[in-house]
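ok so heres the complex, two chains, lmk if somethin looks off
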Amino acid sequence: NAGVTQTPKFRILKIGQSMTLQCTQDMNHNYMYWYRQDPGMGLKLIYYSVGAGITDKGEVPNGYNVSRSTTEDFPLRLELAAPSQTSVYFCASSSTRPPQASSGANVLTFGAGSRLTVL
Amino acid sequence: AQKVTQAQTEISVVEKEDVTLDCVYETRDTTYYLFWYKQPPSGELVFLIRRNSFDEQNEISGRYSWNFQKSTSSFNFTITASQVVDSAVYFCALRTNAGKSTFGDGTTLTVKP
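and the predicted structre for the whole thing:
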């Protein structure tokens, strides 16, 4: 049981390049999230998904895209990287389904983070 | 719209002191969930406590306790007899019934020996 796995852990991009941050979870969680954390700041919600095929914007969606074709995977796409996207990105998941609903409902399980630098 | 405010940016205490971290939230939802997460210097995010909006009973879990007051939209978190290992950034978070989870900007706690 690996939990939430993010790749890559580190990446340096040039301005204008594109990349995809991968996120996969093996807990059969229905909800998945992408956050970014700028230095010394809190977590800002980029996109989230309440189930396969359903995604919604968070607080800071501009410059990003997501898809949720399976329950397990929730990749985050940066189309034209900009220096303002330099940040640490966290993927997270949670469940509202029994039995997790009774014991750990809605608690976010986070990946280890992906540090992205855009130069 | 929902919002979480942690007014304390940084707190410094001496080991064994009690410390309370404040959290104020805003939401129009009648059903919601409140959380505290910890981010130690290593960077991972760790769940600490959860409270449902329909349960205002305050509890103690080991050295952790929390005070949830719906009337003032506050969800404060207390660490009793702080230890150096408690040094971390603490985040308060709000999740609505629709699934959107919003975090505060965090409070950096430093516990000195």
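quick notes: Chain B touches chain A through 21 residues (CB under 8 Å). thats all i got rn
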